Amino acid sequence: MFDIHQSVRNRHGEQDERLVYKYIDGLMKAFAESPEARPLIEQGENVGFAGMMMEYYFNHIGGDFDTMTLPDFNEVVFDLFPRKVSTPPESAPAIIAELKAFWSFVYRQYGLKSAEPILATLTDKAVADLRDDLADPSNYGMAKSLVMGGRQAGYDMTTQEGIDAYVREYNASLPLAASAEDFADEEEWDEEELPPSLPAPPTRQQREKKRKDRKRQRQARKRNRK
User: Which of 75, 76, 62, 85 is closest to 195 using CA atoms?
Assistant: First the structure.
């Protein structure tokens, strides 16, 4: 049986990425084989939101999974999911249903006490709240805004061709005085928001170099106009 209390930290007490993903894979495999997950799988659902919940918890909040609290859970599902996960509001019922099945499994199989308060909140209200959060563009991170905007414009954002085509249209729509690099300068990118097919955002050093280069170019143009 999977050991839900195992540590994901190395001998120095630091979180180990390799152990994190081994933990997530192991617990998700146990969940997928459980009676709680069976109805979802029989309906054709691909269980994965529970794994995403654990990944965001480990990477953004930290701590061992068996110490996850209700506030931790709420931060992941109602803050990080709407900001980072490029999924439509209509997926809220499926997300909550899977998370309810997952925490029911964790509670039955391991007797994890922290599962009780979380399960108590996974009601129709949670579905409605998550649907509203997923539908609110003000909650979106930069990469999610790009993906959702492309979908709304009719581009297939699951392919590199679709992404490239929408990025070209997006850049062409910017004011002449602006550029995609200028836009990147004003925002802090979170690399975890990026779908695998999107290029990595510019680093802070690259952005700083571009700002200095543009400043020198502006000064040169001013001197030439005198």
Answer: 85
Q: Residue 130: its pLDDT value, please? A: 96
If one compares 154 and 22, the residue with the highest pLDDT of the two is: 22
pTM for this predicted structure: 0.68
* Cα–Cα nearest to 122, from 61, 49, 70: 70
Region of residue 126 (phi > 0: left; psi between -120 and 50: alpha; otherwise: beta): alpha
Q: What is the number of H-type helices and E-type strands within the chain?
A: 12, 0
pLDDT digits (tens, 9 = 90+) for 90-108: 999 999 999 999 999 999 9
Token pair belonging to 73:
């859970």
Calculate Rg over the CA atoms of the chain: 22
For the chain, what percent of residues have pLDDT higher than 70? 64
DSSP summary character for residue 60: I
Does residue 199 have a pLDDT over 70? no
Structure tokens at 176: 């002449």
Q: Report d(CA 85, CA 99) in Å as an integer.
A: 15
User: Quick one: tokens of 113?
Assistant: 């006490």
Calculated CA dihedral for residues 41, 44, 45, 47, nearest 10 degrees: 40
DSSP 63-104: S-GGG--HHHHHHIIIIIHHHH----GGGHHHHHHHHHHHHH
Q: What is the dihedral of CA 70, 75, 77, 79, to 10 degrees?
A: 160
